[in-house]
Design goal:
Largest sheet: 5 strands, parallel
Number of strands: 5
Number of domains: 1
Bound molecules: adenosine monophosphate
Radius of gyration: 17 Å
CATH topology: Rossmann fold
Helix content: 55-70%
Strand order of the largest sheet: 2-3-1-4-5
CATH class: Alpha Beta
CATH superfamily: P-loop containing nucleotide triphosphate hydrolases
Structural class: alpha/beta
Distance between the termini: 41 Å
Strand content: 5-15%
Order of helices and strands: EHEHHHEHEHHHEHH
Length: about 200
């Protein structure tokens, strides 16, 4: 069973890595950004509501996102696992997801935090050239990430689910690290325990 959440700033490679792992682990890659972009393109009601927020690099309001994720995780293809990419994005979404998973009797195994320095993120996003990848919008998305999404690192650290991975390495190396994590037993003790570090002699 593979159930992972991909955390990390925009441009860190969450989508790319989630896509690769999704094929290797044969579980769906659920990207809320992709779902929203498809809705914008199809001009659905959700798409029309979300468009302005996305173009400005702001988060789409929670009242739209919570229903969306509930519906997606209720679909049959998620029975054997899932990789969540882009959700949760703030504490309210994370708390909602906690409650939802309890309700549907599922547990998240790991939360992958892909770490990449800011300047590298900006460079990668500029190269990608998506509609919301103009430099001022990119900067805003990074700010929104720091303010609203980064607190989730502590949130999941506190639940012993967080696994931080250096995302500033070549694509294959990152994939290999992620595959080792996927193979781990979530019940097993993490390799680096915070209290071992603090007990280390100066
Ligand atoms: P992404 O492809 O994950 O970078 O998402 C692109 C854009 O979609 C974001 O900048 C947000 O405007 C919106 N979005 C994606 N996921 C969420 C979410 N979980 N909550 C709110 N907005 C989201």
């Amino acid at each position: 069973m593979t159930r992972l959440i991909f955390l990390g700033p925009p441009g860190a490679g969450k989508g790319t890595q989630a896509q690769i792992l999704s094929q290797r682990c044969e579980v769906p890659h659920i990207s809320t950004g992709d779902i929203l972009r498809a809705a914008v393109k199809a001009k659905t009601e959700l798409g029309q509501k979300a468009d302005g927020y996305m173009s400005a690099g702001e988060l789409v309001p929670n009242d739209l996102m919570l229903g969306l994720i509930r519906e997606r995780l209720g679909q049959a293809d998620t029975a054997n696992g899932w990789l969540l990419d882009g959700f949760p994005r703030n504490v309210e979404q994370a708390e909602f997801l906690d409650r939802l998973l309890t309700e549907i009797e599922q547990t998240c195994e790991f939360v992958i935090n892909l770490e990449v320095p800011d300047e590298e993120l900006v460079a990668r996003m500029l190269e990608r050239g998506r509609k919301d990848d103009e430099e001022s919008v990119i900067r805003n998305r990074l700010e929104v990430y720091r303010e609203q999404t980064e607190p989730l690192i502590d949130f999941y650290q506190g639940r012993q689910l967080l696994r931080s991975v250096d995302g500033n390495q070549d694509l294959d190396t990152v994939t290999q690290v992620l595959q080792t994590i996927v193979k781990q037993d979530p019940e097993a003790t993490p390799e680096v325990e915070p209290d071992i570090k603090s007990e280390a002699k100066p």
